[in-house]
């Protein structure tokens, strides 16, 4: 909703590219700090497709397909008008100072990249994000997000990257995440997650990086990860409450590891000699 004088304009009711113009203006209206003067040229004297950070479609003139405003130290709230940019494929507002709630995304069915990392967003992750069924990258790391990780994230079948690290969620790692078989990078590190590492993660046979460090996870070393032997390169389990002995065959079962973080747990026994067989292991 955009307020111009005494007239309220609902972005969703206007046709074609005029919708996108007004939605961008409403987004700009919520910005309270723009230290680099990025929005000076966001005015009616120039076509909105020429505004810095805005990319429009070639096939559908005037329709915004990308909004990329990262690393600009912007502050304010992310206007709900973003949710009416229905042609949007990329939304990157990372490394700013946005606060408040996550913008509504349920109408952004073309969205493929969502990067709101390194802000000050304070919200739970809504189930409605699963309406964006084409999402490939979701990065909400380093915010102040709360609540449980929604099990329905498993409906995002096209995800290759999911980063929720350095927030304040509670609860367990949803076993349903094991259904996102396309995922290559999963970052849930430095949160408040409890419980054991679910066996279902062993179904993620395309996983290259798994970061679960800095939580309160318990149990033994997750042998389910041996199913990732062909893909797993980086494994972070540090700073948890994992215990018991490490599997003696860990090196043979995960031969493609390049980085392995197990520090600050309560493992016991010997360091497995099989780790010496992992020729590409550069950090342990």
Write a concise synopsis of the structure shown.
The protein has two helices and 20 strands.
Count of helices? Answer: 2
Task: Specify Rg, calculated over alpha carbons.
Answer: 22 Å
Adjacency order of strands in the biggest sheet: 4-5-7-9-11-12-13-15-17-19
For CATH, the homologous superfamily of the largest domain is named as Ribonuclease Inhibitor
Number of separate structural domains: 2
Report the principal-axis shape: elongated
Proportion of strand residues: 15-25%
Major beta sheet summary: 10 strands, mixed
Oligomer: single chain
Low-pLDDT sequence parts: 1-16
Estimate the helix proportion, in percent.
Answer: under 10%
Q: Ends: how far apart? A: 52 Å
Domain Leucine-rich repeat-containing N-terminal plant-type: 18-57
Organism: Aegilops tauschii subsp. strangulata
Domain Disease resistance R13L4/SHOC-2-like LRR: 105-265
Keywords: Leucine-rich repeat, Membrane, Repeat, Signal, Transmembrane, Transmembrane helix
Mind explaining what this structure looks like?
The protein folds into two domains: 1-145, Alpha-Beta Horseshoe (Leucine-rich repeat, LRR (right-handed beta-alpha superhelix)), CATH 3.80.10; 173-284, Ribonuclease Inhibitor (Leucine-rich repeat, LRR (right-handed beta-alpha superhelix)), CATH 3.80.10.10. The chain has two helices and 20 strands. The chain has helices at 16-29, 250-253, and strands spanning 2-4, 7-9, 31-33, 54-56, 64-68, 75-77, 90-92, 97-100, 113-115, 120-121, 137-139, 161-163, 185-187, 194-196, 209-211, 216-219, 234-236, 241-245, 259-261, 266-268.
